[in-house]
UniProtKB/TrEMBL annotation:
<feature type="binding site">
    <location>
        <position position="309"/>
    </location>
    <ligand>
        <name>substrate</name>
    </ligand>
</feature>
<comment type="function">
    <text>Catalyzes the reversible cyclization of carbamoyl aspartate to dihydroorotate.</text>
</comment>
<feature type="binding site">
    <location>
        <begin position="323"/>
        <end position="324"/>
    </location>
    <ligand>
        <name>substrate</name>
    </ligand>
</feature>
<dbReference type="InterPro" id="IPR002195">
    <property type="entry name" value="Dihydroorotase_CS"/>
</dbReference>
<keyword id="KW-0665">Pyrimidine biosynthesis</keyword>
<dbReference type="Pfam" id="PF12890">
    <property type="entry name" value="DHOase"/>
</dbReference>
<dbReference type="InterPro" id="IPR032466">
    <property type="entry name" value="Metal_Hydrolase"/>
</dbReference>
<dbReference type="InterPro" id="IPR011059">
    <property type="entry name" value="Metal-dep_hydrolase_composite"/>
</dbReference>
<dbReference type="GO" id="GO:0004038">
    <property type="term" value="F:allantoinase activity"/>
</dbReference>
<dbReference type="GO" id="GO:0004151">
    <property type="term" value="F:dihydroorotase activity"/>
</dbReference>
<dbReference type="GO" id="GO:0044205">
    <property type="term" value="P:'de novo' UMP biosynthetic process"/>
</dbReference>
<dbReference type="GO" id="GO:0006145">
    <property type="term" value="P:purine nucleobase catabolic process"/>
</dbReference>
<keyword id="KW-0378">Hydrolase</keyword>
<feature type="binding site">
    <location>
        <position position="62"/>
    </location>
    <ligand>
        <name>Zn(2+) 1</name>
    </ligand>
</feature>
<comment type="similarity">
    <text>Belongs to the metallo-dependent hydrolases superfamily. DHOase family. Class I DHOase subfamily.</text>
</comment>
<dbReference type="InterPro" id="IPR024403">
    <property type="entry name" value="DHOase_cat"/>
</dbReference>
<keyword id="KW-0862">Zinc</keyword>
Length: 426
C-alpha cells in the first residue's frame, strides 16, 4: 500500500525541512520526502496549500476508560484524536478503577488494539488508587508499556512518596507527568482568584496553588535526576520557574493547553461551566507569560488536557460542576488561530510542540518525524480554511467546550496513522 502526499508544505522538525515537497508512504513507514516524487501510488492526496506534519502527539488525554465510559471511551476518544490530527495520545490513569497495575494497563492497550485507529499509550498512576499513600507497581506498568507515570487530576502531596516514585522513574528512564496543585490551598475554589471571582461571588484558586508545587516538583526532580514534565502550566511564575530550571540544566519540560493560551478569566460567561477547568483560566498577565514562553520555547509542548464530561454532569452550578473541557477536536485550529496566525510561533514550532518534542520526552524513537524509515503517521492541515467550531460535529462523547461558535482558521484535512487514512475531512 502506497500513499503519495503531493505538493504540501512539509514541516519536519527532525530534518528541518520547511518547504513544498511530496511525501511517499509505503505500508506503515515513511518511504521518501522530496520534490516531485514520480512513483505510482494506490492513493494520491493533493496537499496544495496545506501543512504536512508528523502526526500529532497529545501527551494529556482523559479517555475515561474503564469505568467512566458515559463520558468517553477508548473508541470515541481515538476517533476524536484522529479528527484532531492526533496519531498518538497518552491517556491519563484517573479512571474507575484507577490504572495502577499492569493488568489494567493491558485492558486499555487491548481495547486500543481492537479500535485500531490511533496509537493509545496509557500512563500509569503513581500511587495505588491515586490515594497518595502507597506506590503502585511502577516497574510492572512500564514493562507493560506505560511511557510515563502520572497522578494527573491530583498532586502526590507527600513529597517523600513522590521522591521515591521519581527515583524509580529515573531508573526506568520514563518521565513523570506532573499535575501541580496544592489541594489544601484550593479550599473549594472553582475559578481563578481575581476581580472576576469577586464579581461572581465565587471562591477563587490562587496562583500559589500551582506555583508552590511546581517549585517543589522541580527541586525533587533535580534531586532524583528524573525527567519532570509539567502538565497544563497556567501561571506566569510557572513559566519563570521552568525557564530557571532549564537554565540550571535540570531535566524538565512543560506543556500549555489551548484554553490557557486563548482565554483569560475575563472571558468567563457567568454561570457557564464550560469555562471551569483545572487549572483555571488565569489573568491577562499569566496568559501573556504563557504566550512569551511558547514563543521562546520555554514551553516544549502543546497538549489538550481533553477532559470530557456529560452535559448532565456539567449542567449544574459553577461551584459543583466537575473541572475540565474537551480539546482533541479544537487544538489544531486554536493553535493556528491564536499562535501561528498572530505570529507567536512558526509552523515549525507548532510541529515541534505538537509532535517532535512529545516524541522526545516520551522516548518514541520512530515518531514525531518524517524521516524515511519512521512510522507513517502524518497529518495534513489546511491552515487557511476557516470554519465555526460546532459541538454537533464532535465525534467525542464530550461536548463541554467554551469554544462552541468560535470562528477559527486551520482545519485537519487528513490524518494518517501507520500508513492508513484514519480521518478525512469531507
Ligand atoms: N483538567 C481538568 O479540569 N480535569 C481533568 C483532570 C486534570 O487534567 O487535572 C479531568 O480528569 O477531568
Ligand atoms: Zn491535571
Amino acid at each position: 500500500m502506497k500513499i503519495l502526499i503531493k505538493n504540501g508544505h512539509v514541516i519536519d522538525p527532525d530534518t528541518k525541512l520547511d518547504q513544498v515537497a511530496d511525501v511517499l508512504l509505503e505500508d506503515d513507514k515513511i518511504q521518501e520526502v522530496k520534490e516531485n516524487i514520480k512513483e505510482e501510488a494506490d492513493r494520491v492526496i493533493d496537499a496544495r496549500g496545506c501543512y504536512v506534519m508528523p502526526g500529532l502527539i497529545d501527551m494529556h488525554v482523559h479517555l475515561r476508560d474503564p469505568g467512566l465510559t458515559h463520558k468517553e471511551d477508548v473508541f470515541t476518544g481515538s476517533k476524536a484524536a484522529a479528527r484532531g490530527g492526533v496519531t498518538t495520545l497518552v491517556a491519563m490513569p484517573n479512571t474507575k478503577p484507577v490504572i495502577d497495575n499492569p493488568e489494567r494497563l493491558s485492558y486499555v492497550k487491548n481495547k486500543a488494539t481492537q479500535c485500531n485507529l490511533v496509537n493509545v499509550l496509557q500512563a500509569g498512576a503513581i500511587t495505588q488508587g491515586m490515594k497518595g499513600e502507597e506506590l503502585s507497581d511502577i516497574e510492572g506498568m512500564v514493562r507493560a508499556g506505560a511511557p510515563a507515570i502520572s497522578e494527573d487530576g491530583k498532586s502526590v502531596m507527600n513529597a517523600q512518596i513522590y521522591k521515591e516514585a521519581m527515583q524509580i522513574a529515573a531508573r526506568m528512564n520514563i518521565p513523570v507527568l506532573a499535575h501541580c496543585e496544592d489541594i489544601h490551598m484550593v479550599n473549594g475554589g472553582c475559578m481563578n482568584e481575581d476581580t472576576n471571582s469577586e464579581k461572581f461571588g465565587l471562591p477563587g484558586i490562587c496562583n500559589a496553588v500551582e506555583d508552590t508545587i511546581v517549585a517543589r516538583d522541580i527541586l525533587i526532580a533535580k534531586d532524583t535526576g528524573c525527567h519532570l514534565h509539567l502538565c497544563h502550566c497556567s501561571t506566569k511564575d510557572s513559566e519563570v520557574m521552568l525557564r530557571l530550571a532549564k537554565e540550571e540544566g535540570i531535566s524538565v519540560s512543560g506543556e500549555v493547553c489551548p484554553h490557557h493560551f486563548t482565554l483569560t478569566s475575563d472571558d468567563i460567561v457567568e454561570g457557564d461551566t464550560n469555562y471551569k477547568m483545572n487549572p483555571p483560566l488565569r489573568t491577562k498577565e499569566d496568559r501573556q507569560a504563557l504566550l512569551e514562553g511558547l514563543k521562546n520555547d520555554v514551553f516544549d509542548v502543546i497538549s489538550t488536557d481533553h477532559a470530557p464530561h456529560t452535559m448532565v454532569e456539567k449542567g449544574v452550578s459553577m461551584k459543583s460542576a466537575p473541572f475540565g473541557i474537551v480539546g482533541l477536536e479544537t487544538s489544531v485550529s486554536l493553535t493556528i488561530t491564536e499562535l501561528v496566525d498572530k505570529g507567536w510561533i512558526t509552523p515549525m514550532q507548532m510541529a515541534e510542540k505538537m509532535s517532535y518534542n512529545p516524541a522526545k520526552i516520551l522516548h518514541l524513537a520512530n515518531k514525531g518525524s518524517l524521516k524515511p524509515g519512521k512510522d507513517a503517521d502524518v497529518v495534513v492541515i489546511d491552515p487557511k480554511e476557516s470554519y465555526v467550531i460546532d459541538v454537533k460535529d464532535f465525534v467525542s462523547k464530550g461536548k463541554n467546550t467554551p469554544f462552541h461558535g468560535k470562528k477559527v482558521n486551520g482545519k485537519v484535512k487528513v490524518t494518517i496513522c501507520g500508513g492508513r487514512v484514519v480521518y478525512e475531512d469531507k
